[in-house]
Amino acid sequence: MDEVCKINKMIKLSKRLSAAANLVRQGRTLADIGCDHGYVPVSLVLNGKINSAVASDINEGPLNSCINLVKEYELEDKIKCVLSNGLEKINLDKVDDILIAGMGGQLIAEILSSCSFEELKTKHVILNPMTHPEDARRYLFENGFEIKNDIIVKDGKHYYSVFDAVYTGKLKDFSNSDLFIGKIEIREENKGYFIHLLNYLKNKQKSGENFEEVISLIEEKINDNC
Question: Model confidence over 16-25: pLDDT tens digits?
Answer without folding.
Answer: 999 999 999 9
